[in-house]
Amino acid sequence: MAKRKKESLESSKNKLLFVMILFAILWTSLLGRAAWLQLYKGADLSRLALRQHLAAELERGERGSIFDRNGNLLATSVEASSLYIRPVKVTDVEGTAAKLSNILGISRSKLRKDLSKKANFIWIKRQLDDRTANKIKEADLPGVYLTTEFVRLYPNKHLAGQLLGFAGIDGKGLEGIEKEFNERLAGRKAQFVVQRDASGRRLYLDAMGHEVDVRGKDVHLTIDSHLQSIAENALVDAIKKFEAKWGAAVIVEVATGDVLALANCPRFNPNIFRTSSPKIWRDRAALDVIEPGSTMKPFLVAAALESGVVTPEKLFDCENGRWKLNGKYINDTHKCGWLPVHKIIRYSSNIGAAKIGLELGVQNYHKYLTDLGFGSKTGLPIPGDRVGAIRPAAEWNEIDLAAASFGQGIGVTALQMAKAYLCIANKGVSKPLRLVKLPKSKDEETPKRIFSEKVAEKVLSMMREVVQEDGTGTNARINGITVAGKTGTAQKAGKGGYGDNYMGSFVGMVPGFNPEYIVLVWIDEPELNHYGSKVAAPAVKTIMTEALAYYGKLPEKQNSTPIMEANVEAYSEMPKKAVKLNSTMSEPSSDIVPDVTGMPIRRAVEIMVKKGFIPKLKGQGMTIIKQVPPAGDKWPEEKNAEIVLWLS
């Protein structure tokens, strides 16, 4: 029994010794392996690890987006796969060429040639559709690779196409805002250390190991997408109706100088720029220099008033529509005799404007034109911003001065014209237009007074006559709203002189008192009618009406039936005892006469009746254009005092 126990104990000791020796051998092997890896292979393995987790890759970040003033997307980028090859890694040239030819529709011979080159990188096809990219993946061809690029997308298609421009296949801006802000919008090239996490996701790091953002920065415009659409649609209708060559429209907010719309027609879809011509993608509203015609006359009159050369009532002989100056004839559309200055604007007399210009003089007129921004770039971030065409004053003769007085012999852009009218609307102070909200401009033009507030208001009053009275702009009238404006019909210069082609234009400001918006429309070479009053004024009316409706500033729809003179007289002769204040109406608390000009007649009369007065109405129409007593005076103490409202 004792012997058996002794043998069992010896066996256990042997087993324990065997296990200990086994573990010793194992740990010795592991320590030896670790020492060999760390001391002998450590440097090589470290390099292999870095190749797995850290690499220097060439990547381009996503291009920044372009937004309108309300944050609506105008241009963005979407991912797409592009195909390239590394010929040195291709194992089967003939088989690879055959498969790629079937998938891509590229000739086998061309692919075979590329695959046979001793090169490390060759593009085969950029920006594939998803179906084709999936077929390439499934083919799993050695030496054939897919990489991710970004394709520029314009979700609103043609909306503001010429303004936005487009970017090429390499993501570089080639036209418009895309070109002007390419440095800001372009995604950065990721020539950085790229670290991959455990899931294989890439983290972009700079040379110091800090994470970086390779995406381009965004640009925010002052454009309002809805107003841009309104302007473009109005241009399309006008060009189609009058069979014109092209058209341009600009909408400006007076308070800020923001360009709310910069429209061109024919329209351009930057998504398919390769199928369009430079003539189509040209931003004519910003770049084309034209002779403006009679839309220059308000600036002439403002300069003459400011210089003390004329007054609104000074008379000029308009020669019954035809006048010879130094052997050259100047003609008017309307045959007029003696006209005061304000009617020269109302009826757009070239002869009257020429005579005002001759009294003003070359130096004075030229100075005011340059002060208004003509002959200089607008400063807006638009590639190819033009200076226009105004020769030095020393080169002008008497005929040049007369022609420039009614907008011929000088060249301006639509944006220059809009900026000049902004000065009139802004009470005589010139200030810059603005097209981009972000990034903010570093060198913004300082506002500068060109005309006194009194002169600006006189010119604005004349422009109201153009629309509200029997002037040339009556087609721009809006029921219930006072509109100021000026027509232009410029004969276009051709070889050897002026030909039979015209540029019809109209500039409108709404409301006519203290304007909030400026709308300019140019219609080039209309066939069926060439007068600005016929081809451009209705388009401006459409744009202004829809813009006011969009902003909720359009008055309630008025009865289109005109107020007859008999009804006006009957109303005026009502006995005052028959007029009683409605008990539900509260008595106006102010002792000051309110400004009712520009109001619908119904609203203006209601205000007067609330105060206990029956106004006398003069003229025919639906809108108040003048009042006595003027706004700001105290209400008359006598209840039978005369209150007069003039209608248009």
* CATH-derived architecture of the largest domain: 3-Layer(aba) Sandwich
Structural class: alpha+beta
CATH homologous superfamily title of the largest domain: DD-peptidase/beta-lactamase superfamily
CATH topology of the largest domain: Beta-lactamase
Counted beta strands: 25
- Overall mean pLDDT: 84
Could you say which overall geometry the principal axes of the C-alpha atoms support?
elongated
Helix content: 25-40%
Layout: helices, strands, pairs:
Blueprint: H1 2-40, H2 42-53, E1 54-57, E2 66-67, E3 73-85, H3 93-104, H4 108-115, E4 122-128, H5 130-139, E5 144-153, H6 161-164, E6 166-167, E7 173-175, H7 176-180, H8 182-185, E8 192-196, E9 202-205, E10 219-221, H9 225-242, E11 246-253, E12 259-265, H10 278-281, H11 284-287, H12 297-306, E13 315-317, E14 322-325, E15 328-331, E16 338-340, H13 341-346, H14 350-360, H15 362-371, H16 398-405, H17 414-425, E17 429-430, E18 436-438, E19 448-449, H18 453-468, E20 484-494, E21 497-510, E22 517-524, H19 532-535, H20 537-550, H21 565-572, H22 601-610, E23 616-618, E24 624-628, E25 644-647
Helix pairs in contact: 3-4, 3-5, 9-20, 12-14, 12-15, 12-18, 14-16
